[in-house]
Amino acid sequence: MLKRLYAWTLSLAQSPHALWALAFVAFVESSFFPIPPDIIMIPMIIAAPRKAFLIAGVATVASVLGGLFGYYIGFALFETIGQPIFDFYGKADAVAEFSEQFNAYGAWAVLIAGVTPFPFKVITIMSGVTALSLPIFIVSAIVARALRFFIVGALLWKFGEPIRDFIERRLGLMFTLFCVLLLGGFALVGFL
C-alpha cells in the first residue's frame, strides 16, 4: 500500500497543478500522511530551478499549517484520531513516556523532527497532547521546516540533478548528525 501511495504522490509532481499538490501533501504530511513533500519538491525544482525558492516557500507554509492541524489533533482529537496515528507509526508508548518532560524540550523536539527523517506528525500531535506553548510550537515549526525545505531548494537550484541522490539518500542523515552534534555541544557546554 505504501508503495502505491508513494508512486501516486510522486506522480503529482508532473501534474499541471503540482504546486497545489505540493501544498496539499506538505499540509497532510505534517499531521497524518506518511509520504514527505520532498518527493514532489525534488522533481518540481529539477524541472524548474528558477522556482526553487517559491516551491520551498509553499512547502514551508503548508507544512506549518499542517503542523497546526496536527497540534489540534493532539489537543482536541487525540483519542479518536491521534492515537491511531501513533499506533500506525509504532509510537503509541511515546505519549506516556514523554508527556511529562515533553514541554521542557518541546521546542527542540519540534526543531529536530522538522528537519530530520523522524515523522514530524508525531511531534505535532504530541505538542497538542501536552499543550506545548502555541507560539513556541509555531516559531519552532517555521524555523525547522524552512531550514529543511530551503536547504533542499537551494541545493537543487545550485547543483540540479547531480545532487538529487545525495538529497534523497543522505541529507536526512546529515540533518540528524547536525542535530546530534548541536545537542551534544549544548550538553558539553552545560557540563563544563
Automatic annotation (TrEMBL):
Signal peptide: none
Keywords: Membrane, Transmembrane, Transmembrane helix
InterPro entries in UniProt: DedA_domain, VTT_dom
One Pfam short name: VTT_dom
Ranges that cross the membrane: 20-40, 52-73, 136-159, 171-191
Annotated GO CC locations: plasma membrane
Domain VTT, first and last residues per copy: 36-152
PANTHER family: ALKALINE PHOSPHATASE LIKE PROTEIN, DEDA FAMILY PROTEIN
The protein's name: Membrane protein YqaA with SNARE-associated domain
